Amino acid sequence: MAELQQRPGRVQFQPPGELQAASPRPWEVWKHDPIAGAVEDVKTFGGGLLRDAGRGLQEGSTYSNMLNVPRMAGTALEWSLLGDVKEYGRTMLEAARLEEAGDHEGAAQMRQVAGLIAAAVLVPGPQGKLIKRGLVKDPVDSATIPTGSGGRPTPPSGVSSGVPQPLPTYPPVLPPTHKGALDSLPKKDIGGPKDRQAKWDAKVEAGEEYPATMTFPAKNNSPEALAVKKAVNVAQRDIDAGNYTPYFDVSKRADVDPSNYDIGPATLDVAVPKRADTLAKYEAQANAPDGLARLVAAYDEGTLVPNSGDWYFVKQMEDVFIRELGEEAGRIRFRERFTRPIAATTGGAAPKENLRTAMYGNYLREHNMPYPTAAHEMPYPAGGVYVSGNIAQHKKIIDAGEIDPVVNPKRFNFEENFLGNRYAGTIDKQISQLFDPKMAEPPGPSYGVFEGAVNRLADDAGVDLRRYQEAAWAGAKKQREGPRYPGSRPLIEEVNQMIERTSRVTGLSPDEVVVQGFVHSRIPMYGIGGAVVMGAAAGMLSQTGEERPGALEY
Question: Cβ neighbours of residue 285 under 8 Å, at least 6 residues apart?
Answer without folding.
Answer: 291, 435, 436, 446, 449, 450
